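Appendix B, Record 12. Input sequence as logged:
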Amino acid sequence: MNLHIFENAEQIAVAVGNMMIEQVNQKPDSVMGFATGASPVPTYQYLIKCFNEGKVSFKDMTTFNLDEYYPISRENDQSYFYFMNDNLFNHINIDKANTYVPNGTAADLEKEGHDYDALIKSLGGIDLQLLGIGVDGHIGFNEPGSSFNSPTRLVLLDNNSKEDAKVMFGSIDQVPVSAVTMGIDTIMQAKEIL
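Logged structural output:
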């Protein structure tokens, strides 16, 4: 593990963004894992800036997001599908057919998780996974106590996660009680994690 300490979110965004750009420039068809929430937004803004300056092209890249609320439609402005398009994908030259977010309305959630993991494996695995860490230590929506062998699956959100989300949803009663999340095993199979 390499530990880097920065003074503020702007420095983090530049450092993380440059690592991601280096990955894509070295391997244009990289498979990248993305996170949502407030923490990665400055990094996504930096990636957009660098794309606009011609420093990177994302046209051959494939992405997988960590999680999605359940049940929630992709058109809902609180969905992570909407979040990624609004905060990154609509502003760069990525082929949206190569951007994957778990389906927040899937009828068969076990199949959804299995298929998500199988697709990641079929593409050679995730080259670089961006993670945020929740206040209780969760990654994705793997709440404390999640198995290290866990695949992508449906989980119940704990109170900390619902409290964090209530600002976005307006009230805790509007926050979905579940989410589909990449499991810890899926995340840890990434070749590199930020």
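The beta strands are 31-34, 62-65, 67-70, 99-100, 128-129, 153-156, 178-181.
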